[in-house]
Amino acid sequence: MTQASTGTSTPRAHPPRVPPGERGATRIADRVVAKIAAQAAREAAPPPPEAAAPHATVAVRHDTARVRIHLDLGYPCDIGASCAAVRDRVTERVRTLTAMAVPEVAVQVEHLHVGKRTG
């Protein structure tokens, strides 16, 4: 038979509360930032139907992300304007969703896809 408790245990001491700024840090993995960047590139310059989806590689150091986007574009198009739109959108989305600085977004156009001609 087990012995019953008498109810005279001492209360547990709670550790002192740590202020929020001193509790630690959240680390966002490079691959998560790369997925955010690739999605932002798709939003800014949707790939042609026969093209591969944009791919991103990212180097994160402290609170700074350097991004490289590889994508396909339709032809004809304004390549410079498309790349600028991708840079702007990627910078904005990564900064907003991760609170990281984005000093560099390099856009590399892998292929130009000619649209189907009618005639």
Individual helix count:
2
Largest sheet: 3 strands, mixed
Query: Mean pLDDT score, rounded?
Result: 88
| Low-confidence sequence ranges | none
Overall morphology? elongated
Order of helices and strands: HEEHE
User: What is the annotated CATH architecture?
Assistant: 2-Layer Sandwich
Q: CATH fold name, please?
A: Alpha-Beta Plaits
Number of domains: 1
What fraction of the residues are assigned to beta strands by DSSP?
25-35%
Helix content: 25-40%
Radius of gyration, in angstroms, nearest whole number: 25 Å
Q: Strands across the major sheet, in which order?
A: 1-2-3
Number of strands: 3
Identify the CATH class: Alpha Beta
Protein name: Asp23/Gls24 family envelope stress response protein
Organism: Streptomyces pyxinicus
Characterization of the model:
The chain has a single domain (26-114), classed as Alpha-Beta Plaits (2-Layer Sandwich). 29% of the residues lie in helices and 28% in strands. It contains two helices and three strands. It has a three-stranded mixed beta sheet.
